[in-house]
Design brief:
The complex is a heterodimer of chains A (about 180) and B (about 220).
Chain A: H1 6-33, H2 38-93, H3 97-107, H4 112-119, H5 123-137, H6 142-156, H7 160-168, H8 174-180
Chain B: H1 3-14, H2 24-43, H3 49-71, H4 85-97, H5 108-131, H6 137-148, H7 159-163, H8 165-200, H9 205-210, H10 216-221
Helix pairs in contact in B: 2-3, 3-5, 3-6, 4-5, 5-8
Classes of the chains: A mainly alpha (about 180), B mainly alpha (about 220).
Chain lengths: ~180, ~220
């Protein structure tokens, strides 16, 4: 992201506001002492410009903050949506609760030893569960298993409208068709 | 971005768990005012030019925060944390009983503290302006430079200025009193933050430094 960070904008707003207070204070003094002097009028003009600048920068900050927040919300939604997609697909493959857990850990990138430790199971058991998951999913191994879920994101981007289609997909039978198109 | 997605985000907890608790403007004005209080209370000489410059800067920071209290994001707006003394007392007793509620912005006790500090700081700034005839720090600096150079004519007080002696004396007393009150409140504020951080088991200082309730990594892991 090349947009200025909010903290930079905020720092500039604050700097401008403090500078404006100093300048306006001086301009008011001059204006009271010599209301019609060109110097006073110029200062008054600059003071107004400064105040407008602060308002504009503050508004920019507000807009940037709002945008960042909505982006973060969208990211959360996408995360949640991906979890939904995965869950629906695990259902479609008919994974057992234990296999779902192991499958989820595998997708998060944990290796057999780590999964075994987390689940308090023997590595051999985890390896057997992974093999069953891959066979139910019709994939050859972990890389293909993970790629199964990533593929959609690469092809269509993160559009929520797409998720209904993915969630409704009932199994891997539909996938080859999808891939060829 | 579609509306559905925004709404879904809010439903999934996006609303009650803002990515950022305190926005950068709130954070920077907070630490700006804090350092100005330390500077003018402990470092600069009372009535000196630097003291007045810092005072005017605080005026700017307060004014900006005031406007932001109406126009800023939800957590920064006054309407999110109205002063409610009874709720504040209840929050304190809840806290001691170990059953405090969580609030999206200031908790009621913190909110009262914020308003009390703002009121005192506003009073300090206002009385400071009265004491210096609301002359801008620039002209005061120029005057001091002139006096230092041997031109004492600027020290001759006008008729008007002498009439205000009484007002100025009251302003001076109030200035000192309010400034001391700011220090007492700041101490209570720090003690309250320390106590609540301890009792709630969460660091209340981090969000004011970095804006986040927890680190990015933790947020991503949930």
């Amino acid at each position: 992201m090349n947009r200025p960070r909010p903290v930079v904008i905020a720092a500039i707003v604050i700097l401008q506001a403090v500078a404006t207070v100093f300048f306006v204070g001086d301009a008011v003094t001059d204006l009271l002492n010599a209301p019609s002097a060109p110097h006073s009028l110029l200062e008054a003009f600059v003071a107004v410009a400064l105040i407008l600048g602060v308002i504009f920068a503050g508004w920019q900050l507000r807009v940037t903050l709002e945008r960042l927040r909505s982006q973060e919300r969208a990211l959360d939604t996408a995360r949640g949506a991906l979890a939904d997609v995965i869950s629906a697909q695990f259902d479609a493959w008919g994974l057992t609760p234990a296999e779902r857990d192991v499958g989820a850990f595998a997708l998060k990138g944990l290796d057999v030893g780590e999964i075994a430790e987390l689940r308090g199971a023997a590595p051999g058991t985890v390896r057997a569960q992974l093999t069953r998951i891959y066979s139910k999913a019709g994939v050859t191994g972990r890389a293909q298993f993970a790629a199964w879920f990533v593929e959609d994101l690469l092809e269509t981007g993160l559009a929520v409208a797409e998720i209904d289609r993915c969630g409704a997909a009932t199994g891997q039978h539909e996938r080859p068709q999808h891939r060829e198109t | 971005m579609t509306d559905t997605r925004t709404n879904a985000g809010a439903r999934d907890g996006g609303a009650d768990a803002p990515p950022e608790l305190w926005d950068p403007l709130v954070r920077l004005t907070h630490w700006g005012v804090a350092s100005a209080v330390v500077a003018n209370g402990l470092i600069t000489e009372d009535g000196s030019a630097p003291h007045i410059w810092v005072g005017w800067a605080v005026f700017g920071l307060l004014a900006l925060r005031f406007v932001w209290g109406f126009t800023g994001p939800r957590e920064a707006r006054f309407s999110t944390f109205p002063p409610r003394p009874i709720a504040a007392l209840k929050h304190l007793s809840d806290l001691l009983r170990g059953t405090p509620k969580h609030y999206p912005s200031h908790n009621p006790a913190g909110s009262i503290m914020a308003y009390a500090l703002w009121a005192c700081l506003g009073l300090v700034v206002l009385t400071g302006l009265v004491m210096t005839d609301a002359q801008s720090p620039l002209s005061i600096s120029e005057q001091k430079a002139a006096v230092a150079a041997g031109d004492w004519s600027v020290l001759v007080e006008g008729e008007e200025s002498r009439d205000h002696e009484g007002v100025k004396e009251i302003a001076e007393e109030t200035h000192e009193l309010a400034a001391n009150l700011v220090f007492v409140l700041a101490f209570l504020h720090i003690a309250g933050v320390a106590l609540e951080s301890r009792l709630l088991g969460r660091n209340l200082v981090m969000p004011m430094l970095t804006g986040r309730k927890k680190s990015k990594r933790d947020a991503g892991a949930t």
